[in-house]
Fold Sushi domain-containing protein.
Amino acid sequence: MCFFTAAVCNPGYGVPKSVFGLPVWRCYRRRLGFYSAGNTTTACSKCGEGMTTAREGATAPEECIPAVCDDLPREAPGIAAWPAACKGKSSCTTDCSGGWTGSVTVVRGADKTWGQPQQNCSADKVPQNFTGQPSLSPANIIVNSDAAITFTMKFTTELPAAAGHVSLFSSTGHINPELHLKDMQQSVTRRSHSAPAAAGVTSVSPRGSSYTAILQGAALRNLSNSPGVLHFTAVLGADDQPTGITAELQLLTGCASAPTDAPPTGALGPWAGKDCSNAAVGAQCFTSCNWPAYDGSGYYVTCLPDGSWSGPGGFCFPTSCTGSPGPEWAASNCEFMHIGARCTAPCPQDVFTSGSGYVAECTLSGWQVMSRDCSMSQPDVCNDLPTPGPPFWQQGLEFQLCWPECG
């Protein structure tokens, strides 16, 4: 940069205008894309569109040369893809698409890169082909259930960023948004690439966008706790613009949660299975028998119209007997013997001297004692009268212990 007391600049320099519309009396070296012949008090001249200079401080219009780029312009909102023919040119223009209107032009900058777009695409508030059908999984739930509902809104067009986010609302009249429930998350965006056209243009055609939201438990119970139909709709942008896309969720009478009462004795465990919560009227919840200790059909309960569960049906019977039939069998390892098996124990020799011992049988109702056959030996007896002896012996004392000896 050079300074002059006179209002005249050398070749390649110029005087810029100030914010007050008057020249700033300083001479500045001209940047790329500008030139000045010198001996001037005005700003430097700019090369024409698509033209630049090979160096700073150019002094004549003859130094302006075509500005070309070997790559394609940067991505821009509303532009699916720049034409391949833009490579090697100083400017590029293409039409907007995918819910955007207008066209965009970019020009080769003086720094040998593409400049900012000279105009931008305009986003349609709702693209004309903004249509789609929502899906719910599942499509119906039981009133007051904790089941999670996944809402998926699939649109036939990819929404432009300027159109705003997609939100899930409850609705009245099947269309009108009522209560904001949740912002939806974009989950899938698919594109298809077509072959280059004759003019060397590679197009990218948007096929659609998919948005999802999940509601569960309290979020649904706040809307209704009675059987009926809930209506939902998708809205677009911060101003909640209706899209006309609606969905319906059926609220049915049934059992919202699994039975709280434990199954009867012999069951494998708590009530379980997909039919034990969010169950329709008439649905049954099962549990099997705890094999091998128990066998049978298992147990079941049925969801009643009032939303409660019935008493248990079915049966489980023991396939073996647990524990011991009694203290007499303590050392006999009778535990877990199968139905019909018998457990025996001998008579204790230190107490009894005769008998077949103890016998118990395993039945459906548990251990049944079949016999207890253990007895002590009978003492020696006298079958006749004692011989005369001491004065305390008397007649009529047959079968009494003889002492000192029977005669």
